[in-house]
């Protein structure tokens, strides 16, 4: 092995290619496709007369995404730096376009743009934000250490977040975008105290808000999001309303047990659990594959962000490192929030599980991000490892 | 540019994320091991559907084992929308097989529901035919439906059942818990829309059929009595005719006829008697406008919902136990027995009837205007002479008479095993003055049910033993093994044996030489008493003619009463009701003897 590698190195391959990362991503994609078929085939057959209806659509997006990923991985990542500002502006415009007739409504929310295929502008915005912030922070240099610089970086995602939240009514994507920005800022600033203070303040604020909601609100008078909080605290009390989906997910998870019911044997997917192939797919994984299946997925995601960490820490420059940190932040926030929602650890909000949940634009843009990371990884000289 | 602190911070992010993942993993352990049992149970409750399987209801058999109430297999045809593959073919087939409108079927086939019922109570042959088409999504479920082979025979006694197989009127209600059986269940796994999953294992609990009820009714006697009742109702244009036949010694009811009866297989369709509307009309009489209510024939659809319900209740009503009437002269049996028992009169006491008797300021007339003249007590009974019985009643006195009323069991109910028995309507003890006592003595100013009268008369001629009238004899299982035999209370010595013997003699005289001679049968010893009473309100011109007879007169085995409600033309009980009982006895006495030899 070592001998062959050395010989190859004498050719063009003095740069690193992260096969482990690629393998982990391909594993998650393949696993996701199997689960999408398992979860959706019954309803797909009832509704469309084709058990593989969702599988085919997802497979198409995945293949398209893999091609795009390969192309992006081949291109040196600095190529994209010049599009950073453009990316920020374009994502803002695309979000605004949702309000035009190009916008599309689905599941009661107007979040999609239809241009031949359905695209969620929020997904583009995530990618745009990673690119723009990486470029912006690099240009700032040492001025990020000043309070002004700190606040400037913190202010950048705010307009996009507000648009995503208010225009497309997608609070969870807004939180993710802001979270990505916060993590990138955390990495680029040498300070700890400020972040610890913000984190403590944030936790205290959330706790106070929850306390306030519980004290004052009852279900009738509560707004949509307040009601979610109440249903989170006691899903069985709101079993026919806001707590319904959460409770169904808990039934699925709890009835899985240690070894699960076996692949394809889920009962909850038979119409009991709404959106089973989307945001709630993890609960069906728990039901069919049990605690072991769930652990396997969590371990795969830990390995994934471990690879991200390795690549970021060995990146040639700060721009590359920040790109990887952004992607790492994006995926880890989304996975953690998704599993937390499904297990009723936090109030219910619509977040898909990366690479596994059904959703074309999500998987496309995730694969573009992986392409970027692979591109950064390619910039690492093997001798630097 | 790229510093060590950047790398440190990236490691921090990784560690924090990993910690969060481990936290979520711990949460999963809690949910999937700690809470697993709880959520598994909840989920199974959600996934399992319980479908009940009807139990076959027990049959009702007459005393010879003839089936009076049975079950028929009927089918319910439904469609399951999600399983339909050829909806057009299904619609076409269902329309032609079930004779339904295409629009009706199309609407149900198109409806997106778990299961849509097309038609129930489809007979088995049609159900089998539909099943033979073998079209996807068409479901034929078998079910039991109550079936009464004799249609209207003893309709008000047997009663019928509702859609849930529960008894609605009659014996079906009283013996419901023996007849109903225990429903079985099928446990199936279903998806969220309730569609059953073929691969899901089925748990099945078999239904337990209900037990058979054996009743004392004899279908031959019941049929013959019904024919007689219908005949006399027809010839006398009466509103209704009731006939009761009971075994004197044990209270077993052999027949209970209330014509017009109704069809037990179609209990919600009103019979002709009940299809009318009451219309207020104005007529000119002697120059004055008189308002009156006239009955006009109407169809069932023309009736209001309330009218329809009232008529149904009327149609299902068992007049012999649910309604009370003034018994009239047949009640003189009670007065005579009380008088004899009290010792205030003997058969040899002589009386003189001038055609009336004066009680306080009232003049109570005898039905024979000129009076019966001199007569002894036996003759007075044969003549059904009102003044004599008033005299006897007054001799007994109000308080003692009331005691006898109570002792004979007239104040309570008979305890018959049929629902809705009416209670006696009688004066309060303190409220009985001379006039009331006088009228009670010949059977007026109070009301009892026909059954109550017959049972009381039976106990007076049965050596003073009062029986509980009943139909229910025993309960048997499907193989005919006895499950339970019903016991009924008997009350002894309500009159002495001597009084009873005297009463038998006097009542036989009534049939041999008195007002009941139309009930006389050559070669048999029959006892009895006639009655003709005006219905309330008096002056309506409506009468009730009745006759109560028993045989053999010296040792009664069977007692019968015939009540004719509002006959046209001749309305005397001795002339129109006594012949009915005679015809009945002519046929059944030899038949009963034969049975008894066996």
Verbal overview:
The complex is a heterodimer of chains A (385) and B (598). Chain A has helices at 2-10, 19-48, 53-74, 84-97, 121-140, 147-155, 157-166, 171-188, 193-216, 224-233, 244-256, 281-313, 318-342, 360-378, and strands spanning 103-106, 109-115, 117-119. Chain A is mainly alpha-helical. Chain A has two domains: 24-70 and 237-385, no CATH class; 75-191, no CATH class. In chain A, helix 2 (19-48) runs antiparallel to helix 12 (281-313), helix 4 packs parallel to helix 7 (157-166) and helix 11 packs across helix 12 (281-313). Chain A is globular. Residues 1-9 of chain A have low confidence and may be disordered. Chain B is α+β, with helices and mostly antiparallel strands. Chain B folds into two domains: 51-215, Penicillin-binding protein 2a (Domain 2) (Alpha-Beta Complex); 328-597, 3-Layer(aba) Sandwich (Beta-lactamase), CATH 3.40.710. In chain B, strands 2, 3, 4, 5, 8, 18 and 19 form a seven-stranded mixed sheet that branches. In chain B, helix 12 crosses helix 18. Chain B is elongated, with a radius of gyration of 35 Å. Chain B starts with a helix and ends with a helix. The chains are: A mainly alpha (385), B alpha+beta (598). At the A-B interface, helix 8, helix 11, helix 12 and helix 13 of A face helix 1 and helix 2 of B.
Short overview:
Chain A is mainly α and 385 residues long.
Which SSEs are present, and which pair or pack?
The complex is a heterodimer of chains A (385) and B (598).
Chain A: H1 2-10, H2 19-48, H3 53-74, H4 84-97, E1 103-106, E2 109-115, E3 117-119, H5 121-140, H6 147-155, H7 157-166, H8 171-188, H9 193-216, H10 224-233, H11 244-256, H12 281-313, H13 318-342, H14 360-378
Antiparallel strand pairs in A: 1-2, 2-3
Helix pairs in contact in A: 2-3, 2-12, 3-14, 4-5, 4-7, 5-8, 5-13, 7-8, 8-13, 11-12, 12-13, 13-14
Chain B: H1 4-34, H2 36-47, E1 48-53, E2 60-61, E3 67-79, H3 87-98, H4 102-110, E4 116-123, H5 124-133, E5 138-147, H6 155-158, H7 171-174, H8 176-179, E6 184-189, E7 203-205, E8 212-215, H9 219-235, E9 240-247, E10 253-259, E11 276-285, E12 288-297, H10 305-316, H11 319-322, H12 332-342, E13 350-353, E14 356-359, E15 362-365, E16 373-376, H13 377-383, H14 386-396, H15 398-407, H16 434-441, H17 450-461, E17 466-467, E18 472-476, E19 482-485, E20 490-491, H18 497-513, E21 527-534, E22 543-551, E23 558-565, H19 573-576, H20 578-597
Parallel strand pairs in B: 2-8
Antiparallel strand pairs in B: 1-6, 2-3, 3-4, 3-5, 6-7, 8-18, 9-10, 9-23, 11-12, 13-16, 14-15, 17-20, 18-19, 21-22, 22-23
Helix pairs in contact in B: 3-4, 3-5, 9-20, 12-14, 12-15, 12-18, 13-18, 14-16
